Amino acid sequence: MATARELAERQGWDAVTTRRLAERIEYSQPVLYSHFRGKREIIGAVALDGAAEMAAALRAAASAADGPRARVAALARAYLDFAARSPAVYDAMFQLDGGLAFAEADTPEPLKDAFAALSESLGEVAGEGVHPGLFTEVFWAALHGLATLTRARRLPPEDTERRIELLVDRLAVL
Amino acid sequence: MATARELAERQGWDAVTTRRLAERIEYSQPVLYSHFRGKREIIGAVALDGAAEMAAALRAAASAADGPRARVAALARAYLDFAARSPAVYDAMFQLDGGLAFAEADTPEPLKDAFAALSESLGEVAGEGVHPGLFTEVFWAALHGLATLTRARRLPPEDTERRIELLVDRLAVL
DNA sequence: CTCTCCTTCCTAGCGGTGCTAGAATCGGAT
DNA sequence: ATCCGATTCTAGCACCGCTAGGAAGGAGAG
User: Which residues does chain A have within 8 Å of residue B101's beta carbon, measured at their own beta carbons?
Assistant: First the structure.
């Protein structure tokens, strides 16, 4: 898992082939298949790992800020920072098929927890009459859009901070 | 191009292989490479096609609505509708590597025009002191996030309309 | 000490991928 | 009739995810 993650982070997921992976860990290819069902499951494992990390990063950022406004802004920054610093892990979580279930009963715990980490800080600024879960979904979607479009160079990266400010000031009810 | 698009729409881009494509158009594989540099360029061509279509759909939806609020809501609905109805084309535009430049000098015209179609309706609700381009980027990112997360089943699809309402009511200054 | 069993691991290979070199074919101009 | 140039094909390269089947080695039983 660590090797897969490192390789993906350094050269992209395309470079993560079962052959290369086997070579790096100094075993033969079939050994991989006695630990994982296939490449998809390797991606899934990296994703779960990343989700736990992200949840921790989000909580750390939120708890270090004073007041709802600063907390939500810090949360947004931490989210985008994670996506920018660990693009491969972020891809494993949200872009690639890791065979993981989302928003369903059998969603793995780390994923639900990462969503919960968002929800904890966002619920308090949802505003009256708006379901906190729905608000979290929309805010999350906005962050996800910013993260992916920025990384795919669909958005110029310089204005990230201004986009965060705009998003927080408009979406959150303070 | 039409065959690639149809095949992708029906069975996903994974099913679009140069061999299958060649078979469908009743030519041999190398013929593809005399029209396109490679698979990436085929995806890019489908993406440009889709961008023009999306721009038209967005403008049609916007011009059929009365007032800024209704216009922006219609725009958002049209965007998500396009992504949901033509997931393969949407992927070609924003998810896959079609070798296209974005937000740069040599960005192809259809892409700039699709962004312009968004900008036309969104600029008027950016609010004072907010750069219309920046506002469009943020709104677009939110839509993109909703589109991709919904389609990847990361968000339950039932609440789409409520999410649109929330997004429009909060982000747009009316 | 020998023999068997079980786990661990590897070699070899399957059918698929994107892509390309080089040969064959065919129509039009000379 | 002959050549030329464009068009298209066959065949093959190196790679992919994945798997069948056998070799190697230690543990336990006799």
Answer: 153
- Compute CA B141 distance to the chain's CA centroid, rounded to the nearest angstrom: 11
User: How many other CB atoms sit within 10 Å of the CB of residue A5?
Assistant: 21
Contacts of A100 (CB under 8 A, 6+ apart): A44, A47, A48, A107, A108, A111
Asked if strand C comes closer than 7 Å to B24 Cβ, the answer is no
Q: Which of B103, B153, B171 sits opposite A154 (nearest CB)?
A: B103
Q: Which structure tokens are listed for A151?
A: 């990384």
- CB of A30 under 7 A from strand C? yes
Other CB atoms within 10 Å distance of the CB of residue B92: 28
Segment B58-88, tens digit of pLDDT: 999 999 999 999 999 999 999 999 999 999 9
Question: pTM of the prediction?
Answer: 0.94
CA distance B112 to chain A (A): 11
